[in-house]
Amino acid sequence: MRNYILRTTVSALLMFVSVSALAEAKIAFVNAQRAILESEEARRVQTQIAEEFQDEQADIEKLRSEGAALVQRAQKDGEVMSDAEKRKLSNQIREIEKDLQYLAEKLQTKVQERQNELLTGIDVKFNRAVEALVLSEDYDIILPRENAIYVGDLYDITRKVTEKLNETDRAAN
């Protein structure tokens, strides 16, 4: 019984010390993905990628329109079509759907590769921006925003990190 009381007392003291030490720490949270994606560099990259792949996107949209027109035709004229015409139209629609899926996956892969290529090194810039904020604002702990259930605006420094990324980007260019 004496050991139980001693352990309980020591545990309570350790928790109290930990809580009071944590209360003195300056804590912040950051959403790394949002900070990076909202930066000027990331927006420039997204615009550049959209321009690079606009022809492929236009091809996909054209094919999608053709498929929609065929589906509409099948719905409109289906009752008066022969079975052979229905099969032919159905096959055309399936072919377009397969082509659409293939082209969309191919484009998505290309875009992802290009994003990775263009955003290489932004993680290093992100870490530098966080380090600069730690030094300038004396943060003791910065945690990923995703690990918290709730974070008040006072503790969320995502916007500050994005601003620091933008400052660094402007200074480099």
Q: Whole-number radius of gyration?
A: 28 Å
Structural class call reads mainly alpha
Q: What's the total count of β strands? A: 2
Query: Portion of residues in helices?
Result: over 70%
Query: How widely separated are the two ends?
Result: 70 Å
N-to-C series of helices and strands: HEHHHHHEH
Number of domains: 1
Which descriptors would you attach to this protein?
173 residues; mainly alpha; two-stranded parallel sheet
Secondary structure: elements and pairs:
Elements: H1 2-24, E1 27-30, H2 32-37, H3 40-52, H4 54-77, H5 83-118, H6 122-137, E2 141-144, H7 158-172
Parallel strand pairs: 1-2
Helix pairs in contact: 4-5, 6-7
Descriptive account of the structure:
This protein is mainly α and 173 residues long. The chain has one domain (23-172). The protein is built from 7 helices and 2 strands. It has helices at 2-24, 32-37, 40-52, 54-77, 83-118, 122-137, 158-172, and strands spanning 27-30, 141-144. The chain has a two-stranded parallel ribbon. α6 (122-137) crosses α7 (158-172). The termini are far apart.
